Amino acid sequence: xxxxxxxxxxxxxxxxxxxxxxxxxxxxxxxxxxxxxxxxxxxxxxxxxxxxxxxxxxxxxxxxxxxxxxxxxxxxxxxxxxxxxxxxxxxxxxxxxxxxxxxxxxxxxxxxxxxxxxxxxxxxxxxxxxxxxxxxxxxxxxxxxxxxxxxxxxxxxxxxxxxxxxxxxxxxxxxxxxxxxxxxxxxxxxxxxxxxxxxxxxxxxxxxxxxxxxxxxxxxxxxxxxxxxxxxxxxxxxxxxxxxxxxxxxxxxxxxxxxxxxxxxxxxxxxxxxxxxxxxxxxxxxxxxxxxxxxxxxxxxxxxxxxxxxxxxxxxxxxxxxxxxxxxxxxxxxxxxxxxxxxxxxxxxxxxxxxx
Length: 356
Description:
Elements lengths: L1 H4 L9 E2 L2 E2 H20 L9 E2 L32 H6 L1 H6 L1 E3 L4 H11 L5 E6 L18 H12 L6 E4 L7 H7 L10 E5 L8 H15 L6 E6 L3 H7 L4 H12 L3 E3 L1 H10 L1 H8 L8 H27 L9 H7 L23
Protein name: Capsular associated protein
Keywords: Membrane, Transmembrane, Transmembrane helix
């Protein structure tokens, strides 16, 4: 009778493979919950950050010229009668977008290489705007300024080996890129475009991070040209006023002789007079640019490079000498012997190098 009164263990307490069925049930419910949430919740798509090579493009050597050849660029002279961007935005308005130009020596070198028919590698370092958040959410979205600018570059300087990489990250600023930029830029690159005017904090500490970023890019072994590109975010204007992070960045640009190009002079006055209209036309939200806003960013960048192309062409043909001729132009034109100093170890070719 005693054995009949004993209760047999429940199925949950019974063991399978040495583990109670209760544990197996909990594990099964957990795995089912994981698969269910992955099924119903949207997952973040991983987009490529490297534009594949275009084998259909045929290189052009613009420096293979003879005397009397016409200017091959319809936009020259820059901001002149044939410049479509100047007609669209007004030449004076576009001229104001060049916050700091400097000598532009390294950028002229890149343009000289392109004029001679060489491939160029362009890389982007930036935050949410450069990552195309709000304009396709794809770093290489065709409606985003990196692709728009690269498409223009390929139209003017076609080459199957030219490349574009976008190392921008959403919600990221100079505090990260100052130390980790090498993970987002190829080992060998000709031009790095840095867009962080709308991502950095508005203080001296953020400027120090930005200074380290620019300096670390300039002293790389491949010696790339660096261009600082500025995006105007209305939210920054509303919270801190006119004196934003772009002013700190201009100070760094002046110290290191790096161009600083910004859309802020183009949109600021219009925003102050009619903020709702500007927000509706160019922005996805008070910070992010819409597709139309990215077109403005690209146009400002293209306008700056058009002026460099016109100056380099004029210098190469001897009609003007505003540009700083690089080795590519001199060798292609068969003129001059550009000798670099053997003891040039500094940032700009000087003997000393800034410590820090």
